[in-house]
Amino acid sequence: MKPTKRNFFPVFDFLVIEICRWRFWLILLFIFVSGSILSTGLAMAEQNPAFGAHKPNYILPITWAEPIDGRLEKEAKFQLSIKQSAFNYRNYHLYFAYTQRSFWQVYDGEDSRPFRETNYNPEFFIRSPEFETDFGEFDGDIGAEHESNGAKEYYSRSWNRVYFQVRYRYDILLLQYKIWYRLPESEKKFTGDPEGDDNPDIHKYFGYSELRGSVSLAELQFTFLGRLNISENKGAVELNLSYPLPGTSMYGYLHYWNGYGESLIDYNRSIIKLGLGLLFVR
User: Fold this and answer.
1) What is the pTM of this model?
2) Tens of pLDDT, residues 197-226
3) Nearest Cα to 61, choosing from 6, 88, 112, 23?
4) Which of 36, 133, 203, 206 is the least buried, fewest Cβ under 10 Å from its Cβ?
5) 148 tagged catalytic
6) Which residue in 146, 203, 216, 270 is the catalytic one?
7) Is residue 266 domain-resident?
8) Among residues 148, 156, 209, 270, which one is catalytic?
């Protein structure tokens, strides 16, 4: 028997199928209304330097990737992220931040449309004042963060890090370079031990640093993330493109992921994913 050929990214095929179904329009209406409210609130919050968006806030009602462990190839993905300044001394701000990223098998009606994975990421950091030079503006963060998926036993993933980040701005360019040290945990004493390190080799896939950046051209904004552990030859690339939607406070958002660590449960799996949705604030 000859193997059947399969398109690697049948995005347009399932888009046409889903658009023809009533549930697609109901989900899209809910996303648009709630997204508009959220983006307006975050935009107003940006006027207050003490509170605002931390990492990108977005929802991708449609993403596609090769199916793994019985998952559907298409699912929704969203991220919410905020920060609050708790203390300010001579323009050194102490921030508390929280980021939550979820992966929702919303198209899997046979299995009650479960949330297959959610990553919780609280952190605190001190941000320095900006230093202006002839070559741009610099500031820096030093902080600590926890990230986990809240799952039990075999599916539990978590780690703790301390980090330093430097940010650089010049005209249309923004760069952020972050390095970290993972705080060590004790080894598990036996299989299924609720104590101990859930993922002792996570550094092999995440590495020890990452580079983020953005370039703004007129109303179009391109953002990227890159990680690489040279010794293991493992890493990840994320590319995003956003454009303001007329008559709204939101942005159309095109998302691409290729590599390890898209989520904690998949920290040691290389995944290629393409998504389309809304960015709430940038």
Assistant:
1) 0.84
2) 999 999 999 999 999 999 999 899 999 999
3) 23
4) 133
5) yes
6) 146
7) yes
8) 148
